[in-house]
Amino acid sequence: MNASILLLPGDGIGPEVTAAAVAVLQRVAERLDHRFTFSEGLIGGAALRTGQTPLPGDTLAASRSVDAILLGAVGDPSFDGRPPGQRPESALLQLRSALGLYANLRPAIAWPGLEGSGPLKPEVLAGTDLLVVRELTGGLYYGEPRGVSSDGQSAVNTLRYSVEEIRRVTHRAFALARRRRKKLVSVDKANVLEVSRLWRQTVTTVGSEYPDVTLTHEYVDAAAMKLVLMPSSFDVLLTENLFGDILSDEAGAVCGSLGLLPSASLGEGPGLFEPVHGSAPALAGLNVANPIGAIMSAAMLLEYGLGLREEAASVQRAVEAALSSGFRAEDISTEEHPSTGTTEFTQAVVDRI
Ligand code: IPM
Ligand code: MN
Asked: Whose CA is nearest to atom 4 of ligand 1?
């Protein structure tokens, strides 16, 4: 296969983990006879530093013309004082919206050998293999009106969802559940919010088209609790934008570290693949970042962006093999398995593909 991939390394540890993901993709191409063409663009603080906006026009144009986009991270504390629309993070929000990336997939698994590196008892975490499907282009993140009142004494954001916005992400989630253990939990706050009631109603209607998938509903507070008490009980968790933001970080921490979590953001055009961890400026340049989130994002790019499922599986097997050989990034290192550094861990994965 020939495929074009746009790299947006971004800020902080973004460039290091993007390099790790590219090394893995290059190895896959070499071993399995594909041709991937990489191009690179500026985004976030990296774009701001060159005097451009967080999402420069040519970055957006390039992202529309490739087969898939691989992003490192955006976020840079030196721009923290700016209004929301001029911060590095706004690039991500604009890109999601401009490309119509309404379905965000965030898998969280208990990696073999890492059951003890998280905050939970290993026997509670064992067997965890869940997928958060987060609606990504609606809800509070984008609702209008929004803003601070002219006297600065109040502020407003709007939570709004249309039936169509709920329907399309719900179809994606059910289709994914069909390929997994066929259990879908829809997370809302229907005991309080009208939007959540519409969410629950719409998910239920769509669910009747997937009788082979078991649908249940959970309030977000209860879901947050269950995620720490019995994470292995979940298969697919479907939820709206803000709840999904919060629950996916929780899922990452539960599985050992946010550094392990990959993501795919999908719409009808090219998908965006990025680790969930963010720019972690304090870790940048120290060769300590965990590349697993980015490497598994590359695996998701292979599977969901290019339809190369077997190739994606070979990347996951290589990560498992590197872990079982004792390689560890800093955040998941232990006394028994000390940190081997970002580049060494990546090489260990590459060697096992
Ligand atoms: C994420 C991030 C973003 C979000 C930020 C950086 C805008 O936290 O991808 O989860 O809130 O969606
Ligand atoms: Mn987040």
From this structure: 245
